[in-house]
Amino acid sequence: MSMEVNEKSFNREVIDSDIPVFVFFWASWCTACKRTQEVVKELAEEYNGKFKICSVNVDRNFIISEKYNIKGVPSFVIFVNGKEVKRGVGAKSRRQLKEMMDEFV
Amino acid sequence: MKRKRTVIIGIDGVPFSLMKNLSDDGTMDNFASLVDQGSFVPMRSSIPEISNVSWSSVITGKNPGEHGVYGFTELIPGTYSIMFPDFRALKSGTFWQENPEKKYVVINLPSTYPAGEINGVLISGFVSPDLNRAVYPESLLVELQKLNYRIDVDSEKAHRSYKLFLDELFEVLEIRRKTYRYLWDYKWDLFFFVITGSDRLEHFLWNAYEDESSEYHEKFIDYFRKIDEIIGEIVKKTSEDDQIILLSDHGMEGIRYNVNLNTYLSETGFLNADNNPEKRYRNIKKGTKAFVLDPGRVYLNRTGKYPNGTVTEEREEDVIDDLISCFKDLKKDGENVFRKIYRKKEIYHGKFLNNAPDLVLMPNKGYNLRGGIGKKDIFTRDIFEGKHTYEDAFLYVRNGDIPENVSVEDIRKIIGY
Amino acid sequence: MDLHNKNKTCWNCPAAIFKGNVDFRGCGQSRRIVPKGNEKHIVIECARRPELGHFEPSITFEECPEWIPMKYGYMLRDMRVMILGIDGYLGWTLALKLGKLGFKVSGIDNYTRRNCVMEKGSHTVVPIKRMTERLRAAKEVLGIEINFRRMDIRDREKLREFMEEVKPEAIVHYAEIPAAPYSMVDAEHAIYVQNNNVLGTLGLLWVMKDVVPSSSLLKLGTMGEYGSPLTGRPLFEGMFPADAVLQWDNREWSMGGELTPRDPQSFYHVSKVQDTYNIYESCKYWWLRSYDIMQGVIYGVHTDEVAADERLRTRFDYDEWFGTVINRFVTQAVAGIPLTVYGEGEQIRGMIALEDAMECMVRLIVSPPEPGQYDVVNQVSGVHKIKDIAETVAKVGKEKFGIDVKIQRLENPRVEAERHPLEVVSKKLPNEFGFRPKVPLEKEVERMFDLLTKEEIKKRIMEKIHVIMPVTRWTGEKKKSEVLEIYTPGTKKDEGYKGRLDT
Question: Which chains sit next to C, with 3 or more Cβ pairs under 8 A?
Fold first, then answer.
């Protein structure tokens, strides 16, 4: 499944999740993000049950963005058991995103 | 008694009990000697006992049904989007608007943003997002910038470090002191000086006050010592005939539990909402009969009033009755959570009842009522230690009569205009 | 009502004041902000509804009483739209359409188009009135008040003054010289075109940043920016999709979001590409919002508004500089000149009829981008081969108007690929903005014949008939193109590439 997450729900949905979480940081003005959003949605279907996919709008959630040191968008951070285990910046192809996620399935 | 000028010192969120304790035990000596010269009583706040509602009542002399401000948050008509009512939402005149022949200096008064015209000076208190619009006249900004003026302390600091938070509280209090000193020599008939750091301090560190062994207890007391210094300073500058009023807008007490009311409404079938944390109140779906806005304001989800309105006019009374009995059932550890449940007409009167909550819940001691959507548990705790109270704001008056059962709405009567 | 923009919110609305409450930072730059205001929620004020104080920017167009439903979506009540180049072929037509829908229309022009066409020794086939008369007629016939100021877009002082006065909520930028051959005449012309177009736009951006940063800029680009790659790579809408991948050296990268390559075909097309980069940058630096509209070849004469009265007609050019190909073909047919196909005629182009283009513009205007968003749409309703268009024009001319039309192939004055694949992606207008083309090629061609065969109009064509044949070559020479062959329509084999439109 894929869901929007914000300051208030981040801990509950990402840090406290039982399954690995793939967090996609985006902004509405970022064209690379828009394209990536489509791919991410498809991946949510594919990895249902194995990975939770969450997206965070960086302009509307600056505190999380600062906490996780997001300097550019799109950024991707994978959390397992509440800890960051992998991160990537810049548009990624479907294959590259899958590669990132498959490591933790 | 002949009155020359009026000085009002507001100390946001300080309960009668605290002022009494600290004046009795010698911490606030200046205030203690003031008490000897006038009357010092507990005062009722507004319903709900939120700062912006209460201060609005103070400055208009009216209840929310007449001034139109019912809480910190409101829903924009026709939507489930949240707005934060400010001075523009106030529908009744303030004492300075209705008496423009007198002169005023008003410093740090909450709920007055954006700062409008006044015969004198107005600096708005919280919530004021932009300092440039919180000051009248604008020319005053230059001096305020020199003083490094700040509207509010950065509460974020309290989440990270109490020490940093306390440092900032003292820093801002000093800036406020310098500000009042700068403006004291203006011509005025009424000088209104408000300290708001007290409310911030108590919210985060109320337990440090109650528990003498707490590592922050001394600092907490010290803050009030500093406030007392300022009170002393100001009183010395007044003359015997001047009217002096000290007041708070609401009291404070310790939190035992936060009560997430919309979670209770979900569990009892009154509230039907999606779970998307981005959307908040916009998650409310059809089928919802009622929802709660901070702190304990219950609104019927009426057809015609809200996009997913469900309750029709004929069913209103029934739903309200159901809600009341449902709330009466809410207990924690065998104790009732609410001590009183008001219907709107019992507590509000005036032209603006349309926006009034249908029910207002008044909690028993220690229960901090909360709105918000999508919280998992009904009873929770978090970093906050202090919650507002209704019955024990405080009022002190020298050279003025205090009506019986005084509330914040009576301040204008005491001032006399 | 299921209007395409019903779920847009304050984030898209020009009346929302974000300044002071949110501090954006650009892609890849570091942020340092602590939000002011309450509880970490972003709050805004509304310029049109100050009584709301501070609130969450989450009210939808459907919910907001300032946005009212109409044919092409919800529109901001009395939305102020400024058209730069309001006297032109598109500018005037759009002004009338918007005015009729209830928008508050303002505009500027310095009559460059009229002057350039006169320079050619040509004139608009459809007679048009002077601006003062046009404005009066608009008021009389359609009840529209247009606030017009004569000025050059490069006069930033005047432009700023006008913008401060009007405070437009959307700016449609048509104030460019749109003629490829004109930009190839000589150094003076090339420099003039790039100066007017590129520096005009650049100046406009600086003025917008200061005066109306929350207004959206709807800028006319052109499909010609992309060129016609021989590989047949699809022409995406400005930027690559995320699953477009670059593979090299056994490694792979996503091209998602990057600007697609540009391959302009004249110095005029180059100026459009420069504009694209200037606007892209300004959205990055200043949080401006823009639609870069890659319009296909425009053709046609008709909208309900311009047809309402003779005095409201929009211009129609047919000379080798300013005439667009379909407009030229119909004119040539009426004038009895074989239709001028350049080279093989296998060139494929995206096209759109006037009426459809106007509808697209309205839909875009009422659905503004978010702060900082630079978006590109390919505004195309069909993809056609030049020689096929000639066949269609000839067919309509013969069957509906009894005109015997021939086609001629000329030496191509341009430097371009004559035989190439073309696949155009145009998904945003139909999928995000609810646009469906209403005007098939044949229908508009017929409407053009209708108008051009009128006696008075035909006379005007014949008056300046010498402007039709191309003499401006990309090589710089002024030399008439040789006729390679003249043929009867219907006698050529259908071969070569087929154009493709992905919606």
Answer: A, B
